[in-house]
Amino acid sequence: MNDPASALIRVERLRRRAYLTAASGSVAAHLFILGEQVRRQQWDSAAAYSLGLLVSAWVLAALTWLRWPTARLSLLIVGVATVSTVSEFAPLLRAPEVQTGSYLSFLIVVALWFGLLPLRVAAPATLLGFLAFAGLAASRPAHDLSLLAYLACTAIVIGMASSFGQQITAFQQDAVTFQQASLTDPLTGLPNRRAALGELRRLHGQLRRGEHVGFTLVLLDLDHFKQVNDTRGHAVGDEVLRALGPALRQVLRADALLARWGGEEFVLVIPGTGAQEAHAVTARLDGLPLPLPGPLPEVTFSAGAVLGHEADSVAGLLDLADRRLYAAKRAGRRQLRWDTLSGASRAS
């Protein structure tokens, strides 16, 4: 799939694998460093490395056992990495020079800032951090200004690359939000006509390729809804439409799609149903009154149902369902019809 939502899912999976790899490597590295410090009896940075080991192990547990999303770990990782790095730099105040490894540690923290924090936070943090680190390095008796210049250029490159990545992610999130809004009815919160048509086309295409047994399409229209608007006001009418979805959901299968088709019309798409099962499923809807939360009135609906194989196109299915819906209205409303005649309704 190439839609924005799928892209974000792929990004999260990639980020999770990266976190797992980094955390596993960090645990191994911290264990090795602590082992070397114990062997050499060097305890200057033992506390910082011990903290790093604990956090790395916690990240592994949160990802594998607690199944936390990566965004939930970002602030923890950044905070601990920053504190650990500052603790690592503290002994440099007494050292004659800043070793190359400290430059690398600073770049790692900068990469974490830009990778896990908003740019408006990462950029000033990097600037302040660089000024503090440069001041520390330049104040040592032995220092290399060319390394500081290289450090500044590398930090800028990391920031630029991160800004591009964050912009792409933001565009994808905006696209997902827009896509969801374009497929959702703003009044009821149900899928809208566009979403229902997309699902119908998908199921009808699969049916024609023989990928499933079939599906059922039902068009529903609330009975005498105009009277609700005329006698109780449009605000109450809107509340009725909003309450319809939860009321119908109580009698529908979990995999059924209920969408607002327009006005007081709704469409129901039930996948994986042949003729016999379709008849059993829709029998629960035939003549069903919908008690809505008080003080809303009880409502009923007329409906027309079709099986997915009864027409060669989605437009043909909708037309047939619409004619059966109006047959239900002509026959007295509050019923579901499988035919356009005056006889008993039956799934065929």
TrEMBL record:
PROSITE patterns: GGDEF. It comes from the Bacteria. Residues 213-341 form the GGDEF domain. The keyword Cell cycle does not apply. SUPFAM superfamilies: Nucleotide cyclase. Keywords: Membrane, Transmembrane, Transmembrane helix. This is GGDEF domain-containing protein.
